[in-house]
Amino acid sequence: MAVSRKSWPNLFCTCLLLCATEAASQQFQLEPPSSTVLRGSDARFSATVEGKWEVMTWTLRRFLVLTVSVTGNVTTSSEQFSAAFCSGGDTGCVEFTIRNTTRGDSGPVICTVQGEYGSKTAQLYVQESGTVNIMGGDVTVVQDQQVELQCVTTAWFPIPTVTWTQNGKAVDSSLYNTTDMANGDSFNTTSVLKLQAVSNTTVACWATVPALTNPTSSSVFLVVVPKPPNWTVLIAVVVGFGGFALLVLLIIGIVFCYKRRKEKQRNYQDEMRRVKTQSQISGVSVAGQRQGQVNAGYALEGQTSVTPSELTESGFGQAHDSNIFKMPDAVNSNLEGNGYNSAYNTLDESGFRKHRHVTIV
Q1: Which helix (H) or strand (E) holds 235?
Q2: pTM tops 0.70
Q3: Sheet with 146-156, side-by-side order of all strands
Q4: 22-58 burial: b if 16+ Cβ within 10 Å, else e
Q5: Alpha carbon 268 to chain centroid distance?
Q6: What is the pLDDT of residues 188-198, one digit of tens each?
């Protein structure tokens, strides 16, 4: 865009004014550009002016709270606000102080130097630290058991940053979970830590906000006791061995009873053989005893005759006297074979032997 020669003087003046304003602005500084403090502490800002000045004003949250002159006169709206020259009495540096800050003091802090210096703005942040508490206190757990600890923070502003340490070492953030909840103009948080109990250890929960120089903490001592013996395994082992021993005893008992039975049978058979052998030696046959017959030729004393039927069945003839009866030779032969040939037996003319009171078994 073309600029006419007639407008050059006006443009030159505008450039001079802007340069002067920028130069004046560079001669006036406000530090720090922002300040974060805890509730109840003091906040300080300093204004540095290079050059001559007469009056300086301080505004908090758009309300004029203090006026200071180059001569050192200070006019304040409250004892909470004060101003003084920096150390050394340099009139080019003024320190503005806000005592016993509250959450309501948070906002812009504006310093204005009358004349060509203009104004500068800084920010004030007032934070609040609350309480930290690990619920339940010290804990005693069994080794290798999973422990769950709960840390509660109350009345913090803004939302605090919560961390955990174990024996002074930071705990991995994946082991705990933190949630927050607004409580009026402050915040409460709950952080839950889950860890494996290995040995005795000190666990601490830490909460902090940017304005807090040293974080607030709460700690508990975790006592780890050895695991009790696994009675289930022990009982299973005992039952197993007991069952095996019982089975062995049962087998031994069965074998013992079987041997006793076989031994009794063998003894019985040996005894029977011994008895049979002794009977044969003594001339008595077991089979002969079982084969004994009734003596059909036996007659009672005083019997003088035998009926025909008796004679036919027994083979005996008619008796000739009251005390003697006759037996056929067949009977006599049997008797002689059995060894009964004594004075009790006689032979008459008819071929019959006379026998008196003889019983064959």
Answers
A1: helix 231-281
A2: no
A3: 131-134, 146-156, 186-196, 176-183
A4: eebeebbebeeeebbbbbeeebebbbebeeebeebbb
A5: 66
A6: 999 999 999 99
Q: Of the candidates 347, 343, 339, which has an alpha carbon nearest to the alpha carbon of residue 357?
A: 343
Q: In sequence order, what are the beta bridge partners of 120? A: 111
What pLDDT, in 10s, does the model give residues 262-311? 777 777 777 777 887 877 777 644 444 445 555 555 555 555 444 544 44
179-206 residues labelled b (16+ CB within 10 A) or e (exposed): ebeeeeeebbbbbebebebeeebebbbb
Q: Which amino acid is at 90?
A: D
- CA-CA distances (angstroms) from residue 264 to 16, 250, 260, 272? 142, 21, 6, 12
Percent of all residues in the chain with a pLDDT value above 70, rounded to a whole number: 70
Give the per-residue pLDDT at 359.
55
- Structure tokens of 16? 């001079």
At which residue do the structure tokens 């101003």 appear? Answer: 83
Answer yes or no: are the C-beta atoms of 82 and 45 closer than 8 Å: no
Q: Which amino acid is at 45?
A: F
Backbone angles phi, psi at 213, to 5 degrees: -70, -45
